[in-house]
Write a structure and sequence with these properties.
By secondary structure, the protein is an alpha/beta fold. It has one domain (6-253): Purple Acid Phosphatase, chain A, domain 2 (4-Layer Sandwich), CATH 3.60.21. 23% of the residues lie in helices and 26% in strands. It is built from six helices and 14 strands. The strands form three sheets. The chain has a six-stranded mixed beta sheet. The chain has a six-stranded mixed beta sheet with strand order 5-6-7-8-10-9, with no helix packed on it. β2, α2 (64-75) and β3 form a beta-alpha-beta unit. The chain starts with 5 loop residues before the first strand and ends in a 9-residue tail after the last strand. Residues 257-262 have low confidence and may be disordered.
Length: 262
């Protein structure tokens, strides 16, 4: 971490179940346990009170019991959490349960000369692909228009670009061109950060960096034509945002191996 930089952490695709220990996607991984391992590592190795952005699929079962279990885990931490929904989430229920104490389901957060915008790409739990509603696109445009000299990072669940896996690209952000029609007009945007893909990805579109992150649960094997589970352990991503608009980022995988029955 460099001097005067702003530290931010990303966790994603926690997939908390309503009943702990329930099988998750053809694996024997306990997603609540792997999330706790990630939170423990953050507590041990990251600055106290760090900003943590959770980029969707907060739960796997979009019911109150799952969100209460997630809330219990977050309440045991001294970090500040900004949460946005994914395709497995019920956005209304998530806001009702999680928007209190040290976690917030809000649209933006400003710190250190940077503006973080949190976008809702969820549709309903029956749809795996994502979409930005007209209202969400309008909010984005209005917010960018008054963002002034702040450097901007966008956070969303679904990837707006191809990540090289045909099955995953088919369930990305369905109206990415509508997003780009807005963002291309605002040069203060430095990057777009997403989850959903359960793997590490870094690329660029024009001058904007595109960054996808592995999950706190299981990982998907990259560049495949169909769904495959990778054997990499749980992970989270870190960012160091500098006052000049540049930033560094990387992924930390935990030492513990994920148990998979594939």
């Amino acid at each position: 971490m460099t001097t005067n930089s702003l530290r931010l952490l990303q966790i994603t695709d926690m997939h908390i179940r309503s009943v702990p220990g329930t099988e998750f996607m053809a694996s024997d991984v306990d997603t609540e346990s792997t999330l706790q391992s990630v939170l423990d590592d953050i507590h041990a190795n990251e600055p106290a009170g760090s900003i943590v952005v959770a980029t969707g699929d907060l739960v796997h079962d979009p019911v109150e019991a799952a969100y209460q279990r997630l809330k219990m885990r977050l309440n045991g931490s001294h970090n500040r959490y900004f949460l946005l929904p994914g395709n497995h989430d019920n956005a209304v229920l998530a806001r009702k349960i999680l928007n209190s104490d040290n976690s917030w389901c809000v649209g933006q957060h400003a710190a250190g000369g940077w503006l973080m915008l949190f976008l809702d790409t969820s549709q309903n739990p029956d749809r795996s692909d994502g979409m930005l509603s007209r209202a969400e696109l309008s909010r984005l445009e209005r917010t960018l228009a008054v963002s002034g000299e702040r450097h901007v990072m966008l956070f969303l669940h679904h990837p707006p670009v191809s990540v090289g896996s045909s099955w995953m690209d088919a369930i990305g952000l369905g109206n990415a061109e509508a997003l780009f029609a807005i963002t291309d007009r605002f040069p203060q945007i430095r990057g777009m950060v997403f989850g959903h893909i359960h793997q590490q990805y870094e690329g660029a579109r024009k001058s904007v960096r595109m960054i996808g992150s592995p999950s706190t649960s299981i990982q998907f094997r990259p560049r495949t034509g169909q769904f495959e589970i990778d054997l990499l352990p749980p992970a989270y991503r870190w960012f160091d945002f500098r006052p000049d608009g540049t930033f560094e980022t990387g992924v930390k995988f935990l030492n513990a191996q994920v148990r998979c029955a594939v």
